[in-house]
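fyi for ur records
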Amino acid sequence: MRTPKEYSENLKKGVITEQMLSDCLYSANKRAKNHRDKAREMRESYEFRYGAPGSYFDIHDAEAATCAKRDEYYRMKEILLSVVEPACIHEEVAGYETKEYLDTDLGYEEHVDDFRDVLRYYNWELGREESKGYLKVPTEFRYYLLYEVGGRTFHNPISERAVKDFTTKGLEVVRIDALDTRGCDTKDLISVQFARKVVALVESGAYEYVAD
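which gave:
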């Protein structure tokens, strides 16, 4: 997309508006996702073509170059996010295990509405009908700082160890299902050149941020 004249004028004055920041974040984030997906496609295409899952030879360093661009855009995103404060912490469920509950177990009644499946059968040894419920229990998590900028939301990953540092500052942890993140057509994005200039301004520290 063409850089709005207002954005260029603001940049000259050292001003970053919330919408400017949002557009630059969106551009960096989506470009990173594009390169992330491209790298995955390269690897999957090779493995499908040669029937060798788990083995991949980046002969021309194409995947390495794509990953380098991905990391560059993620780095730009991280710098831009330093302008604002996170709204909360998102806890993404990344893995589950299935737990069995017999109808005689403590906790069966508590979880009866949450069972993924229920097996009913006759126990000939005990001479009675029994039920066994299967509960999907989250066991693995990923954590992200959630930012809200200019009507958009952005996630920045953090370690589980870092979560406590942010909760002590008052941030709430909100559990979410798996994130679905995708790239988009670059013609709809602010140019890389402009986004880099805004990143450089943020790094200089000599800017004024104007929230909506």
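The first strand starts at residue 15 and ends at 17. thats all i got for now
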